[in-house]
Amino acid sequence: MTTNAELAARFEEFADLLEANDVEYKPRAYRRAAEAISAHPAPIANYVESGNEAAIGEIEGVGDAISAKIVEYVETGEIEELEELRAELPVDIADLTRVEGVGPKTVGSLYRELEIQTLDDLEEAAEAGEIREVKGFGPKTEENILANIDFAREIGQRQLLGEARPLADDVLAFLEGLEAVERCEVAGSIRRWLETIGDVDVLAATEDAEAVIESLLEWDSVDAEIESGPEKASVRVGEIRVDLRVVVPEEFGSALQYFTGSKDHNVRLRNYAIERGMKLNEYGAFDVSEIDDPDSGEGTDGSRTSSDRGSDGSQRVGERVAGETEEGMYEALGLPWMAPELREDRGEIDAAANGTLPDLLERADVRGDLHTHTEWSDGNNTIEEMIAAAVERGYEYYAIADHAEGPGVVADMGLSNDEILEQVEAIRDAAAGVDLEVFTGIEANVDAEGDIGLSDAVIDALDVIVASPHSALDQDSDVAGERLLRAIENPAVDILGHPSGRLLNQREGLAIDAAALGEAAAEHGTALEVNANPRRLDLRGSAVQAAIEAGAVIAVNTDAHRPSTLEYMRWGVHTARRGWAEPADVLNTWPLEDVRAFLH
Ligand code: DGT
Ligand code: CA
Ligand code: CA
Ligand code: ZN
Question: What spacing in Å lies between the alpha carbon of 9 and ligand 4's midpoint?
Answer without folding.
Answer: 22
